[in-house]
């Protein structure tokens, strides 16, 4: 497949989801070997190294790997040793289970004048389930940082990171090249890929981590060939390398079995001159999502807003879905248009990138979050219900200037001690938004008579007249 290459804001990208890409740094033309993956001697004296994202024996459509041609191989490093994990954890038994509706006020970003915190030091696990050792589970983190990573990179051996910036753009340098990711964009750094994060001030965002599966585009079924997140709108970086010796030591931080380890080497890991394959980091602009919506009455399920999914072994059941609620038109007749009251066999973690969420305009704020656990009831607050029950149903723009999202999972997620206690951001008044709900029940209610109802009554009681 030929892949189009183009620039966005001075950064170059290749277009497409899961394509077979080929890229080489323009400073070293011909650095990509021709006709084979592992020549006896690589061009420019490079080392060939394969990064496998799937078992060798996976069926071809599911097989993921890339070949990297680098100045020095990644195996050249000192031994890994354990380092403090901070607020990053996979311990789901720190506190007792809590089935209540949970909402967090915006997570606090430390001031750079008080303490320098980079991306790795600013990782905080909010909730999750499963186990990285058995390669089955998820974790949800937030990152709050104020300084760039200097001579250190991060490598997640446990799973994929889906990163959702909320405040501040982030420049991500990977072994495959560079990506600038802004709020209202997302990026995915897949398992095993080394990356470093530069920030430009106080920065905050959300991360969905999945173990044992990779994100893919959802099946479209009756929607047809087009719609939702279109493959061509996903962008992959082009090759970029630095040949840099770090005499003071370069630190590689490895997340392995839920713990952090660090090793030292004397060169930059971003020394890949050329690469090819289908296992890459990528980014996506949420503005490009092609929204499907109801145009008659009632609601379609929120699954129509799925951007990416990580499938489980059960057909139709996801380890995790990434769902957004973008600006769109609301035109449904005879319908309570905001989200309906609901109890779900899935866990729903929501965040807000910007604006106001339509079902809860107060309390749910950008940079905050909510968790509605399995079978915990939730829905519009009392004010939203009262207002929309009597609203005149005209075509209207919904969620204009906003972007809310949901991490939905079939796992029953446990909240960490940091999430429930240490962060001190839990909104303990959340349940009160439903307290004003009152009964509208009227046992004397009768349906309004109309020509249609009269016709139905006649045809029902006198079948011979039909």
UniProtKB/TrEMBL annotation:
The keyword Calcium does not apply. SUPFAM superfamilies: RmlC-like cupins. The keyword Iron applies. GO terms for molecular function: homogentisate 1,2-dioxygenase activity; metal ion binding. Keywords: Dioxygenase, Iron, Metal-binding, Oxidoreductase, Phenylalanine catabolism, Tyrosine catabolism. Homohexamer arranged as a dimer of trimers. The active site is at 299 (proton acceptor). Fe cation binds at residues 342, 348, 378. Homogentisate binds at residues 357, 378. Residues 12-286 form the Homogentisate 1,2-dioxygenase N-terminal domain. Its EC number is 1.13.11.5. Residues 288-441 form the Homogentisate 1,2-dioxygenase C-terminal domain. It comes from Echeneis naucrates. It catalyses: homogentisate + O2 = 4-maleylacetoacetate + H(+). One of its GO terms (biological process) is L-phenylalanine catabolic process. One of its GO terms (cellular component) is cytoplasm. It comes from the Eukaryota. Its cofactor is Fe cation. This is Homogentisate 1,2-dioxygenase.
């Amino acid at each position: 497949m030929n892949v189009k290459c183009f620039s966005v804001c001075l950064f170059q990208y290749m277009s497409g989801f899961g394509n077979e890409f080929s890229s080489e740094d323009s400073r070293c033309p011909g650095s990509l070997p021709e006709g084979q993956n592992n020549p006896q001697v690589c061009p420019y004296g490079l080392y060939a190294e394969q990064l496998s994202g799937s078992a060798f024996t996976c069926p071809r459509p599911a097989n993921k790997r890339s070949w990297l041609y680098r100045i020095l191989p990644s195996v050249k490093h000192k031994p890994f040793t354990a380092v403090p994990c901070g607020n990053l954890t996979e311990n789901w038994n720190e506190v007792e289970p809590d089935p209540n509706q949970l909402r967090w006020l915006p997570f606090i970003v430390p001031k750079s004048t008080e303490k320098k915190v980079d991306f790795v030091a600013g990782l905080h696990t909010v909730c999750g389930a499963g186990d990285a050792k058995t390669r089955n589970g998820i974790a949800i983190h937030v990152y709050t940082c104020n300084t760039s990573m200097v001579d250190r990179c991060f490598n997640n051996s446990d799973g994929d990171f889906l990163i959702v910036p909320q405040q501040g753009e982030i420049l991500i340098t990977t072994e495959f090249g560079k990506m600038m990711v802004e709020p209202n964009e997302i990026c995915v750094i897949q398992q095993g890929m080394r990356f470093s994060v530069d920030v430009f001030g106080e920065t905050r965002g959300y991360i969905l981590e999945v173990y044992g599966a990779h994100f893919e585009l959802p099946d479209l079924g009756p929607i047809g060939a087009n719609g939702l997140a279109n493959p061509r709108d996903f962008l992959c970086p082009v090759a970029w390398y630095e040949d840099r010796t770090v005499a003071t030591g370069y630190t590689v931080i490895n997340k392995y079995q839920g713990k952090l380890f660090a090793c030292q080497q004397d060169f930059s890991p971003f020394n890949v001159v050329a690469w090819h394959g289908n296992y890459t980091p990528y980014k996506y602009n949420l503005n490009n999502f092609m929204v499907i919506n109801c145009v008659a009455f009632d609601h379609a399920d929120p699954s129509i807003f799925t951007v990416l999914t990580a499938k489980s072994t059960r057909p139709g059941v996801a380890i995790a879905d990434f769902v957004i609620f973008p600006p769109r038109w609301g035109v449904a007749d005879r319908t309570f248009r905001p989200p309906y009251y609901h109890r779900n066999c899935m866990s729903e973690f929501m965040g807000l990138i910007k604006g106001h969420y339509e079902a809860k305009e107060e309390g749910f704020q950008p940079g905050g979050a909510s968790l509605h656990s399995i079978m915990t009831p939730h829905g519009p607050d009392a004010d939203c219900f009262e207002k929309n029950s009597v609203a005149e149903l005209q075509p209207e723009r919904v969620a204009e200037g906003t972007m809310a999202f949901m991490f939905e999972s079939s796992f029953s997620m446990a909240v960490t001690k940091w999430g429930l206690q240490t962060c001190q951001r839990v909104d303990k008044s959340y349940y009160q938004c439903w307290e004003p709900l009152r009964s509208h029940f009227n046992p004397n209610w009768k349906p309004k008579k109309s020509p249609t109802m009269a016709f139905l009554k006649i045809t029902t009681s006198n079948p011979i007249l039909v």
